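Researcher: Quick one. two chains, 771 residues in total.
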Amino acid sequence: MSRYLLKRLLSGIVAFLIFTAIVFFGFNLLLPFDYVTTLSLFLPGNEAREALREELGLNLPLWRQYFLWLGHLVQGDFGQEFSMGGGGRSVTEILKHTLPPTLLVFATGSGLAFVVGHWLGKVSGWRASRWLSGSLTLGSIAAYTAFPPWLAFLLTFVLVDWLGVFPFGATRLRDGLWRDAPIDSNTLMIRMTLVVWGVAAAVWLINWVSRRWRRRNLPSILSIALFVGGLGLAWWLSEYGPYISDIARVAVIPFVTFVLLAFGDTLLIMQANMLDTQHELYIQTARAKGLSEKEVRDRHAGRNALLPALSRFVVNMPYLLTAIVIIEHATEWNGIGNLLFGSIYNQNTYVYMGVLVIVGLVALVARLALDVIYAALDPRIRYGGREKGSVQ
Amino acid sequence: MTERPDAMTERPGTMSSLDLRQAAARRWYQWAASLRRLREGWQIFVRNRIAVLGLVLIIMFGLFPLIHQGLRSTVWERAAIYDPIYGFDAQLAPHPAPPSWIPAEWLPLENVHRFDQNRPSWAHPLGTDTLGRDVLSNLLASTVTSFVVGVTAALVTAVIGITFAALSAYYRGLIDGFLTHISDAFLLLPPPIFMLAVGVYLQTERTVFTEIVYRSITGNGLSDNVKLILEPMEFGIIYGIIAGAGGAAIVLRSHGLKVRAMSFVEASFVSGAGARHIIRKHLIPHMVPLAGVYMLVAVTGAVVSYSFLAFFGLNPNPLNWGTMIYNAFAYRGIGSSTPWFALTPPAIAISLFAGSFYMVSRGVHQVVEPRLRPLERAE
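Model:
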């Protein structure tokens, strides 16, 4: 098993290196000229431009730039942003400021999208009435293929202009509140993400204990109530109440848009997987044992359908990150999406490379984690070592 | 070169008339069999209502350009008004006085804002956009662009995906490792983000600013030899390369490996068939149906990405739903409020167009993959 994982790790690293090369050369060759030309208005004369190029290392051949950057990346250094007067901030610093907002929306939103998509797909794929499954399928296709900026605009319109839920300044944090706040908004966002996942893990743990003890899952309603109650308790216990609600108020629109865009894919795949498992003999066996239909669905079919859905979800992670980029740009949510747009416009090479490396790394780590899960769950890999059940 | 004993090919010149008749009969049987398979597939496809709905939608979109031509040559006799790019209605454009019941102080600028300017009317069934152009005309005319983008992306996806997969599945070993790693790398790269760089490239080329800069450096301009618009077909090709080398290649490869291990391929190999024969006659025909599913999914992705590029002002093609949405937002200040009549139809059109191909892909997938079909109900 460890040999298999090592092999997957090595091949993942190779794929990642190819990815960086494609992105670096692709973008540098596609984008016209370089960073210095975008500043030409401020730098009249070829000498000044050439001097700046030499200072920034842009006069080197492209492959040397790439390997210099790669050498620093291996040491965990993302490089520096270009700037005219010298003294650009380091990309790590920039990412530290822009990653938390994205993380808040992405980490919580994709979790919710997966849970919702999984549950609805399970219900609609398993002998549901034709109307239920048809309408769910159509609805999820509509959400999946919706035009993201349009969806964000529509939600903003409905929530802000029409219903008046957040009447004023819906897309920005309140300046007055944060001026002498005891905590940085980015730190708070990371803590919020952790708390959401922590409460989810706690609910899962309670569920697991109940399964061990009473051989039965908690009712879904109770799980949801526990989750919401846990979040409320965390809010009540923390001393940053108003700050948390301010962040939540701004995050609602990107969050809901993201969940709407992301859950459809999981639902459709889950549906297909449920249809796939119903031919299996163990389903017939379970029925013949006299188990209730719900038990067959949840414990026998649902569990086996879960793993392919999860792997599809992980493989699709770059696409979900793209969705985040688009949504952030459309809703003025200041995360890595807006950073990516800005740096591509300015041709600030190392900044957009930094963002894309983060995107690639998240996808890669998720896939390696999935490999570990597969290896732990699939006896063919656990004992055999032949990669029959490998992802994809 | 020694001659191999080859059971599969008959040497020319040795055929009697009986052989010829047998060959013709065999061809006929094969043809009939493939027709029968097609009909069975169609019956399975039809049972999936959602897929049929998708097919109907695609046919409807296919009729759009024809309807546009028809309308422009018959009902819209003053064709200049209905030109999707340059046309505007002179009766709406001069902005006549607002209704008298509105107090004058409510009007932010005198006579500029006319409240019912964009409303649908008999002359403009879907209303006009903020610049006075007919929305229906633009909507119908833009369908061609979406079809070109989608179909090109689909074809390129299939070609690249099948090539990668067939080579990996047949040769395995080193070639397989090489191609799989490339596919893995492409899987980490979301096509819309890559297309963003393409869009910025074109946009930067277009601006007067860069033109001036470029002139100051080199002494001559760009615009003589640089294309200003990313042709829909070029977009489709780039998108297809990324999508085909990524997701499609990986799924097709695992299917190809399964086919490669089947006994009829082994038999063919043993009886002396070469790489070309096995890839062309065995591997590719077995991959094509599954590739069809990924082609349809690629259409969805390509059309949404193309519009998404336009939405951010990076795609200057005027005949495009994304550009319509972009324009509706960009000229929002001209009208009094949100230009719903210019916004909603293209947004719905993008969703429906992309969704219809996705729906059909689900139906095709059920035909290709018997395990995905729903069980017959017992009752």
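The two ends of chain A are 18 Å apart (CA to CA).
Researcher: Thanks, that's what I needed.
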